[in-house]
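Look over this record before class:
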Amino acid sequence: MDKCINIQRLALAAIVALGLMVPGPSDVDVALAQEKPVVPQNSGQVVYSFAPVVEKTLPAVVNIHARKIIRSKSPTAALDGSAFWRLFRDTLLFGYGRERIENSLGSGVIVSPGGIIITNYHVIQSARGILIALIDGRAFSGKVILSDKRTDIAILQVETGGIPLPYVEFGDSDQLKIGDTIVAIGNPFGIGQTVTSGIISARSRASVGISDFRFFIQTDAAINPGNSGGPLVSAEGKLVGINTAIYSRSGGSHGLGFAVPINLVRPILKSAIQKRPYSRPWIGMSGRRLPPKLAAVINLNQKNALVITSIFPQGPASTAGLKIGDVVLTVNNLPIINAAALEYRIASYLPGDSVDLQIIRNYQRQTVKVTLASPPEEPARNDTWLPNLNPFSGAKIASLSPAFALEFGLESTRAGVVVLDVRRGSSAFRLGLRQGDIIRDFKGQQVSTVADMMDLKLPPYQPWSMKITRSGKELSIGRR
């Protein structure tokens, strides 16, 4: 036993001796430890830590508590649709119709020392009260000064009593490159502000079905419930996006997060600051990606461009002199690869702004200046259910104006009647109409307004056809 104790003592003495032999910190080490961290000026300077970026940004990230009134769902959903259920669903027998208070949690980012905050529309949707909490413990009552459901963006304002708040400066989301490092900040699961990092894994990601606009920055930074409305920050500490959603089957982050590009938020914020309603800009033209064969004909080396396929009469594009068949290469020197890219670039501005389009016409490159406008509301929408005597009864339709089309993400250069709803089993349903269809023509006659549909009659025992646009494709329904 004594021998074992002596061995342990010898080993301990050796360890201590080795520790004493380790050299102390040099003057250089001490100087580096005392050096104050600075915010990096570019992504190449971020080598060891995101701490300077987080230190600068975190005080401007807020928690948003939205108080909402929720109508209770029925616990007897299995009976839904039965005669018994229709008779009693609006009574308190099943608890249907009762309201309860629910507090939802999201994030936001302060972008002005005067207390202007950006968050997601879905965070504050239907809120009866909004509480804004800062990381330093201060709390303010917030109000919505402007919101846009299609981009899922809301602008809030808090009264600070003249005390300036910390804020984050805007970056340029158009300058982001795939592989750039970013930081996402928010309050996932209500556990407090959390920082995650990652890279830009895709730009201009469209058609992911998150909001009506569908144009996002994709990142692999972990974004979880509660992160909605929080900032996506570049390595320079600049705001480049607003975290909006994740792609997940379990509710957790799987490395597919989506953020609204900050350049898309700018015009909404500008409208809010100017205390005017947000009006989406309109260029009055549409197109499709340039086919490779046509690109070869005009000796175009770049892979993608847009060929104009339709122009609204007397619209901004028409007034500027653009023509069907023109090939659009850039908008303000930013590339245009398809119709979604054109829509996004235009949405970064406001009505009255001018943009320069570089085009190819007759094998020659030229620049055309287009002044954007507010989309016209003519013809009036006139939402209507077609009457029982109409062969397409059971369909709710509306006249398609450029403003209506732009609001719902439809082509805004052609006339037609849009189908808003179709009752299952109705005459319209049996004849082939579906929600979202755009009716263009019936028996060779153009259909432009609801009035054109009201007196339609199907010829007995004779063929007829109706031309419609469904999900961007031209179809024909009828009887042959």
Q: What stands out?
A: Residues 1-8, 10-33, 74-96, 207-213 have pLDDT under 50 and may be disordered. The first strand starts at residue 61 and ends at 71.
